[in-house]
Amino acid sequence: MEEASALSRLLRLDGTLKVDFVDSEALAGNALGDPPMRPSAVYLPPGYDPAGSRRYSALYVLHGYTGDVAAMVSSRPWETNVVQWADRLIASKRMPPVVLVLVDGFTRLGGSQYVDSIHNGAYATYTVRDVVGHVDRNYRTVASEGGRAVLGKSSGGFGAMHLVLVHPGVFGAFASHSGDSYFRYAHIPAFATVHRTLEAHGFDISGYVDAFERKPKRNPADYTTMEMLAYASAYSPRSAAAYDLELPFDQGTGELREDVFSRWLAFDPAERVIHGRDALARLRLRYLDCGRRDEYNLDVGARVVTQRIRGLGLAVRHEEFDDDHRNTGYRYETSLPALAAVLDQE
């Protein structure tokens, strides 16, 4: 049996939480200088025996923008993180025992969107090849499509949808909580703020990032600007040189650049699912939810994605709830058992 770790005791888990480090060639030499050695937190359920015969399905959790593994395992009063949710659901027999894997997709700009980028590094490849490969080699998982699911919130929800579309056959199900989608509503409203902010810095992205990092306190416009720079580094890099990004608006006027924004739309799940029937049809569960008061209009995005998948003749579990974009981790109480129920156990 696995011995309880100090972190497991700190979080009051019945299972065991470990932190491994995965050295990824896919992230080596990236323009931002982010480390290729990344933490992956692995939760093992009570009774897990590394020498036993039982194998477990695995749920891969992707964090949102500005998140990382440390944030996902952090504990806050009156809140329950995703590891604690899994542990409690297993203890109460509301879901079967599973291995839970927390994937680190943080970059200097705040997030990778889990896509392969010449600027950020190949985060999709890192996730499906390096992290999944490490887990299957070192833990008693069901090492097949039917034994894995991927889920996340916000940018993590986007990542879950992206990975099942671009790497079919790795995961057998996905769940997107308030995932980035329908970019026309989600992202365009922020572009004017980003234009004004960068204009004040002479559109020197490198200088702006340095100034952002030096600030003892950042304002909302700063966070919005960094977020859109992170998206540009994922969706519209010009080259592998640091901060050589195509911005989706004209630097002089702020007018939307349709040619660049079309590169963003090529990643939009609302656009991608239209041509993704074969990949989506492989899945045992397609799950989306969002709060109806989402500040980024992602509730509309979830509705559009859902309707377009259903238009392909495929079932989708779609739920809405009375909340905004923040502090909605309680939704894991619904998605984790739903995913675990459709996966293989041995």
Brief synopsis:
The chain has 14 helices and ten strands. By secondary structure, the protein is α/β, with parallel strands linked by helices. It starts with 5 loop residues before the first helix and ends with a helix.
Uncertain segments of ≥5 residues (pLDDT<50)? none
Class by alpha and beta content = alpha/beta
CATH-level-4 superfamily name of the largest domain: Alpha/Beta hydrolase fold, catalytic domain
Radius of gyration: 20 Å
Strand order of the largest sheet: 1-2-4-3-7-8-9-10
Q: Which word captures the global form?
A: globular
Characterization of this structure:
It contains 14 helices and ten strands. With 346 residues, the protein is of the alpha/beta class. It has two domains: 251 residues, Rossmann fold; 81 residues, no CATH class. The strands form two sheets. It has an eight-stranded mixed beta sheet, sandwiched between helices. It has a two-stranded antiparallel ribbon with strand order 5-6. Strand 5 and strand 6 form a beta hairpin. Helix 3 crosses helix 14 and helix 7 crosses helix 9. The two termini are 18 Å apart.
Topology readout:
Blueprint: H1 6-10, E1 16-23, E2 37-44, E3 58-62, H2 69-73, H3 82-91, E4 99-103, E5 116-117, E6 121-122, H4 123-138, E7 148-153, H5 155-166, E8 173-177, H6 183-186, H7 191-199, H8 205-214, H9 220-235, H10 258-265, H11 269-272, H12 277-281, E9 285-291, H13 298-310, E10 317-321, H14 332-342
Parallel strand pairs: 3-4, 3-7, 7-8, 8-9, 9-10
Antiparallel strand pairs: 1-2, 2-4, 5-6
Helix pairs in contact: 3-14, 7-9
